[in-house]
């Protein structure tokens, strides 16, 4: 009967379970952090350190968090935590956007269901419902963000609807009033007839839309003789804009042609004998579209030839009895159409701009609900969405229609109502891009900012370089009012610091509701007659609100700093929050409110599709947390390349669970084998065996890599490196080899002490490096070993790695040693598969190596490294059939069974087993260890 030596082994012992149970465990850790006030502890601990301030881009407070919110907030948290652990003071203040259409739309939906008319409800009452709605969702989202493990000043977040924030937003607006940047003008803006308001570029989304297309003749009224009797042909996808036409644009350097129609196809609206003018490059396209079978070219020339030509409007004689001049425009191309651009200055930015250059009238044709005003001939009262075919019919009646068609194309829609938008000339409030050199300041600020990735710089630079003036006003109720007065007779804006101060004092005390329920006299004071002034009733674009967050958060709170170290949002915020913050800050402070900007992609489903309820592919973060825990969601974030769009689905989550399990297994092994650790065991670096010094060199390398990538926010590289280190270099190599030493060597043996010293270093490094990413697991791991009441891994810094651990030569040597081992284990795997051996300890292979390899392996215990009972090296030529790997030159293996008896404690097969007088079933090493222990062999 063999003796059971299990009690003499130093087997791992730990309370750290392999099964994580994160959904049940994480809430308890959150409670612990709250009870110990971890965030405040961090602030006290780091109050004298350099600040790192990631300024939070505010989400809308209008519903439960979606997976994009979770990804964004987790990434912010990982960055703040990593900077904190690198020795900074990373004070993070979360915030919310609380005004604007998304919230107002929700209240209107409730009204519509109840049969109530919003316009019949007092504005302050309506605004209170919006405020209550936003307050509710701030509370809900706050708890959902905290459940993700995000640490921050949750007791003092910022909201754009707090009185101090609203007052500061007004203060920022009044700065533009006083420096002349604010003005009221009439321009075409992107307009939602459904929501009855102007929309910002960031509030648009593009969907396929089927448009009616028309080719239209504009008869030449006057000009050079060669054009008389002919027609200029335009093409448009918006027939409803024909009542707004006031000019036709041509490309001055483009080639044009005049034709006389000779033959037409059946059904064509072209007329034999008529003269038509189009761009040369588009002639064949137009002929095919219009059904012109044959035509003679009667004129060729440059676009400049059309200078001074006047056309008649197609509806001339029916209320459109004005000249339509041809004007040169740089925006004219031959990408589509006819080379002549129908120009309606009230319905397009380029149309407006070219019209301004040439002094063209900007007509008001469309009301806020999308219907034509009563003064519009022929189409008064008709809705622009519904009149396209009617316009084409009327053009055909008067002989102006050359061709009618359909086109499916990408078209702007409201992100809220999903309805198609229109460009509409309206009276709005603007901030000038030219006054005070705002454009130049913004472009300079872009170049002074670090962009991650660098391509973000080019994207926003192009937007700012070509953008029109900022449309600041919205015709809605829930928002910060535009607190200005205009003189009724002169149209002059009232610029008076005393009035401004009065407005601000009231806003700080009562909030922006005061503007809507107070008489003008209250703000104007006794110096002005309220009868002489119009009080603005529009509200501010919510992008102006969020563009001011730096002013009422970064500047207003001494624990923060201005400018922020980092702004971080999705790529769409180049035209959103990054953009508005840049313009607001440059307009009032002359520079950007941020030193660096990081952008991430969008979250798609597992197949790369956009998530939607109709597809049934929405992945809810709450469900992932409920099933797997927040750390799995955090692992997915840091494992993803968020510089591009990310994917998530069931299979992807399963993959992260597997990765997590491998990391957890590594931590459990370390904890188990540090059981009973005492500082007296620690070995100095100089006393370490070579393999241990190789591990320490890898820690040195990882530390440098991690710190560098934390600074450039490349966490997927960090995760990949740590994961591979744990699974490939530790679990599959170092731990695999050192199990024998850890379990079987004597407690005071140098090899075991060295291994345990390295495990201690690994524990301190891995728990710190993983803490910003796997906040719950790192804390659980830390508390398993250091369970003190005030203990937390999140109060630590990344460990300082000694410079003496760097050893590049050792790294190169062990790269080759690991390659050698791969060949041996590859050979033994075949033996195991063929059932010639059960365990690698049954083997004692002969390995044929080159002289160089033999010198490299000199002094190493190769049996330990290969986990065999013996290894014989030979520099003889390898026999035919020896096992090799193509990528490892100079190593060939011939497997063989080990000679001797099996040690009943370490299971190695050795000749020496049986020679010990007391323990004849043990090898010498095991016999010596057991002899020093209080262990007796049972009779």
Please describe the structure with a list of short key phrases separated by commas or semicolons:
939 residues, alpha/beta, Isoleucyl-tRNA Synthetase, Domain 1, Isoleucyl-tRNA Synthetase, domain 2, 17% strand, Isoleucine--tRNA ligase
The best one-word shape is: elongated
In percent, how helical is the residue content?
25-40%
Average pLDDT score: 91
The figure for the number of domains is 4
CATH arch. level architecture of the largest domain: Alpha-Beta Complex
Q: Give the CATH level 1 class of the largest domain.
A: Alpha Beta
Summary of the model, kept short:
This protein is of the alpha/beta class and 939 residues long.
Q: Please, could you describe this protein's structure?
A:
With 939 residues, this protein is α/β, with parallel strands linked by helices. It folds into four domains: 10-17 and 662-806, Isoleucyl-tRNA Synthetase, Domain 1 (Orthogonal Bundle); 51-161 and 441-474 and 542-600, HUPs (Rossmann fold), CATH 3.40.50; 201-424, Valyl/Leucyl/Isoleucyl-tRNA synthetase, editing domain (Isoleucyl-tRNA Synthetase, domain 2, Alpha-Beta Complex); 811-899, Class I aminoacyl-tRNA synthetases (RS) (hypothetical protein PF0899 fold, 2-Layer Sandwich), CATH 3.30.2320.20. It is built from 28 helices and 32 strands. Strands 6, 7, 8, 9, 10, 11, 12, 13, 14 and 15 form a ten-stranded mixed β-sheet that branches. Strands 1-23-24-17 form a four-stranded parallel β-sheet, with helices on both faces. Strands 5-4-16-18 form a four-stranded antiparallel β-sheet. α1 (22-35) packs across α24. The longest helix has 30 residues, at 715-744. 45% of the residues are buried. The model has no long low-confidence stretch (mean pLDDT 91). It comes from Sneathiella chungangensis. Its EC number is 6.1.1.5. GO terms for molecular function: aminoacyl-tRNA deacylase activity; ATP binding; isoleucine-tRNA ligase activity; tRNA binding; zinc ion binding. Zn(2+) binds at residues 903, 906, 923, 926.
């Amino acid at each position: 009967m063999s003796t059971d030596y299990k009690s003499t082994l130093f087997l791992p012992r730990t309370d750290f379970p392999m099964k994580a149970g994160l959904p049940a465990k994480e809430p308890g850790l959150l409670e612990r952090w709250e009870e110990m006030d971890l965030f405040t502890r961090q602030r006290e601990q780091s109050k004298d350190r350099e600040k790192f301030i990631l300024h939070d881009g505010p989400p809308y407070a209008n519903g439960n968090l979606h997976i994009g919110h979770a990804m964004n907030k987790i990434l912010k948290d990982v960055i703040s935590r990593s900077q904190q652990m690198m020795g900074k003071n990373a004070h993070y203040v979360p915030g919310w956007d609380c005004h604007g259409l998304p919230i107002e739309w929700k209240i209107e939906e409730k009204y519509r269901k109840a049969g109530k008319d919003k316009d019949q409800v007092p504005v302050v009452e309506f605004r209170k419902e919006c405020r209550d709605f936003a307050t509710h969702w701030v509370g809900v989202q706050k708890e959902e963000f905290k459940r993700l493990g995000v640490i921050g000043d949750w007791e003092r977040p910022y909201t754009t609807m707090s009185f101090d924030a609203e007052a500061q937003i007004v203060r920022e607006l009044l700065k533009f009033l006083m420096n002349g940047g604010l003005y009221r003008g009439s321009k075409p803006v992107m307009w939602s007839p459904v929501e009855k308001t102007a929309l910002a570029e960031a509030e648009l989304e593009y969907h396929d839309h089927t448009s009616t297309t028309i080719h239209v003749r504009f008869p030449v009224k006057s000009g050079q003789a060669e054009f008389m009797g002919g027609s200029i042909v335009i093409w448009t996808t918006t027939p409803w804009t024909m009542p707004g036409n006031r000019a036709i644009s041509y490309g001055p350097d483009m080639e044009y042609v005049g034709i006389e129609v000779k033959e037409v196809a059946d059904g064509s609206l072209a007329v034999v004998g008529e003269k038509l003018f189009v761009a040369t490059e588009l002639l064949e396209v137009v002929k095919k579209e219009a059904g012109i079978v044959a035509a003679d070219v009667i004129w060729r020339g440059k676009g400049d030839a059309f200078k001074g030509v006047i056309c008649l409007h197609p509806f001339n004689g029916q209320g459109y009895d004005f000249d339509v001049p041809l004007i040169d425009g740089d925006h004219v191309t031959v990408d589509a159409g006819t080379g002549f651009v129908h120009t309606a200055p009230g319905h397009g930015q380029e149309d407006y701009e070219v019209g301004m250059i040439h002094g063209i009238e900007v007509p008001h044709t469309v009301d806020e609900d999308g219907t034509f005003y009563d003064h519009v001939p022929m189409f008064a009262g008709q809705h622009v969405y519904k009149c396209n075919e009617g316009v084409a019919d009327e053009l055909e009646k008067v002989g102006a229609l050359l061709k009618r068609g359909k086109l499916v194309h990408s078209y702007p829609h409201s992100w809220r109502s999903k309805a198609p938008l229109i460009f509409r000339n309206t009276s709005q409030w603007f901030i000038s891009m030219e006054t005070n050199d705002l454009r130049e300041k913004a472009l300079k600020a872009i170049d002074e900012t670090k962009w991650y990735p660098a391509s973000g710089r080019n994207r926003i630079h192009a937007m700012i370089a070509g953008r029109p003036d900022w449309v600041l006003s919205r015709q809605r109720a829930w928002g910060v009012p535009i607190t200005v007065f205009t003189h009724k007779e002169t149209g002059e804006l009232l610029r008076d610091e005393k009035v401004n101060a009065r407005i601000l004092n009231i806003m700080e005390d009562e909030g922006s509701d005061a503007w809507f329920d107070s008489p003008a006299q209250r703000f104007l004071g006794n110096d002005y007659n309220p009868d002489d002034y119009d009080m603005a009733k529009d509200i501010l674009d919510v992008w102006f609100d969020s563009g001011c967050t730096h002013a009422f958060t970064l500047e207003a709170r001494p624990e923060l700093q201005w400018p922020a170290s980092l702004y971080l949002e999705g790529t769409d915020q180049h035209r959103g929050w990054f953009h508005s913050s840049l313009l607001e800050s440059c307009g009032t402070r002359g520079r950007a409110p941020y030193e660096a900007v990081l952008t991430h992609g969008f979250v798609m489903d597992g197949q790369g599709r956009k998530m939607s309820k109709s597809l049934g592919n929405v992945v809810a973060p709450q469900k992932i947390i409920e099933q797997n825990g927040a750390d799995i969601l955090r692992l997915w974030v840091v494992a993803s390349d968020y510089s591009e769009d990310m994917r998530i689905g069931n299979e992807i989550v399963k993959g992260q669970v597997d990765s997590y399990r491998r990391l957890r297994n590594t931590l459990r092994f370390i904890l188990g084998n540090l059981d009973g650790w005492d500082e007296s065991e620690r070995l100095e670096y100089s006393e370490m065996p070579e393999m241990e010094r190789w591990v320490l060199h890898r820690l040195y390398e990882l530390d440098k890599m991690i710190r560098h990538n934390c600074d450039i926010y490349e966490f997927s590289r960090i995760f990949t490196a740590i994961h591979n280190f744990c699974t490939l270099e530790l679990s599959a190599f170092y731990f695999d080899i050192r199990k024998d030493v850890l379990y079987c060597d004597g407690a005071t043996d140098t090899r075991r002490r060295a291994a345990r010293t390295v495990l201690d270093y690994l524990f301190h490094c891995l728990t710190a490096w993983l803490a910003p990413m796997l906040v719950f697991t790192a804390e659980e791991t830390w508390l398993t070993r250091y369970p003190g009441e005030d203990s937390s891994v999140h109060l630590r810094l990344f460990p300082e790695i000694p410079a003496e651990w760097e050893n590049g030569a050792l790294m190169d040597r062990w790269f080759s040693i690991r390659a050698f081992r791969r060949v041996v284990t590859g050979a033994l795997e075949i033996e195991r598969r063929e059932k010639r051996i059960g365990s690698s300890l049954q083997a004692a292979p002969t390995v044929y190596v080159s002289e160089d390899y033999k010198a490299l392996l000199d002094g190493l215990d190769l049996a330990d490294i290969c986990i065999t009972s013996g290894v014989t090296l030979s520099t003889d030529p390898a026999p035919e059939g020896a096992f090799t790997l193509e990528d490892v030159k100079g190593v060939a293996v011939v497997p063989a069974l080990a000679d001797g008896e099996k040690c009943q404690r370490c299971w190695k097969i050795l000749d020496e087993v049986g020679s010990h007088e007391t323990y004849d079933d043990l090898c010498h090493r095991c016999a010596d260890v057991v002899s020093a222990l209080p262990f007796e062999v049972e009779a």
